[in-house]
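Protocol step 4 of 6: structure prediction from sequence.
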Amino acid sequence: MKKAIVLGSINYDIVSAVERLPVRGETVKSFSTEMFVGGKGSNQSVQISAMGMSVQFVGLVGNDDMGKTVKQALTGKGVDTGCLKVSDTFKTGCAIIFVGPSGENMLAYAPGANHGISREQIEQGAGSIQNADIFITQNEINADAMRLGLTAAKEAGVPTILNPAPAIPLHDELYRLIDYITPNETEAETYTGIPLDSLPFAEWKKQSARWFLNRGVKAVCITLGSNGAYFFDGTQEYDVPAFSVSAVDTTAAGDAFNGGFAYGIAHKLPVARCLEIGNACGALAATVLGAQNSIHNIGQIKEFLRERKIEI
């Protein structure tokens, strides 16, 4: 069984389905409000686990009811939470999410314990990192923890993925630790400073990817929502279209993509197939309200792809 280490965020999500997304100072009607487990790291770990891989999650929650709830939920999804510690200092991370009728969303996020991951936690998980087939992290945790985790994985020769969300500044040294970086369009614009409308779309994608490659990243995968995913490593270049689905909630679609992409990389599949798997995971996640409850398992992913004449 392939093994993944996910160093990342875990949140208690409050999701409200609204008639339309509000503007500043506006109150809109909500049709329902649900509580879910979320956080980019947690969501990605659940998707990887649902693909049949062994997953160890490294993170931090508060010593509160929300922390107990999210930890139990993650364990219930088959994720190893031995390195998910409890803090008496920080509260559990929490996100408040509004979802519009077409699946579009906006949110407010309080990172809480996600920004308190310690060096000791990373060192405790170092042995597991050395035996992993893939390492993935995100920007929702404290920068020093992310750097230490990427360094440990790189030194062990484990392929690394950074999902640079949210788009916060990165130290130059970090780029050289990243094998695959997976920004979406907005994050790519923020990092590169190249506006999406400043170039023809094909040229914008390539120039944006080159910006990351020039800083030491080995390969770039830009997720493009309904336009699929774009990959470039300086030699290989792929544009893989999205799968058409009726979107209900896109909250976890990006995380599902990253989980599926990580599965493909861990299994050393061709890059184009990794992108197709990621697109399938993201598409199916968008058809269900909420984060982790929208994650589909390997059987469902295979069937979805098989219906489209793609075998994994």
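Step 5 (inspection) to follow. The longest strand covers residues 30-38.
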